[in-house]
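To whoever is on call:

I kicked off a structure prediction for a single chain this morning and the downstream step that reads the tokens threw a length-mismatch warning. I double-checked the sequence; it's 125 residues and nothing unusual in it as far as I can see. Pasting both halves so you can look.
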Amino acid sequence: MTVRGHQGILVMMRFLSMKGPFCRNCGTAVVREMSGKTLWQGWWSPVSLVVITPLTLIWNLFIRARINKLPPPVPGQPGPQLDPGIPAAQAPGGLRRAGPRALADLHSDPDRPGLVAVTSWQLLA
């Protein structure tokens, strides 16, 4: 399985990937890390904003579905096991306030005219 990431850097782009045979915990950790980096750093060039970052995130959703079908790690398995961490939607601050990600969920705050409130879009829940 290959988990992908992307960084848009104004006029350049950087493509990230991590291949490996993953257990469920390690695969979940890698998908969350790569998708988190993509959510934060993937939108900063025009082509990345429109095409590459959304495709990368959709790819990772399909990979995540495959990883969720894997068995849990076996005690005594060789090599270190990664901590899958918490879902991005439950992380304090961090990805909940990522710029382009939050734009998908803008709404007006009725209690404060002229103020726009941003709620989290739970892509990685």
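Update from on-call: the warning came from a stale cache, not from the record. Cleared it. Sanity check on the structure: Helices lie at 24-41, 46-68, 99-103.
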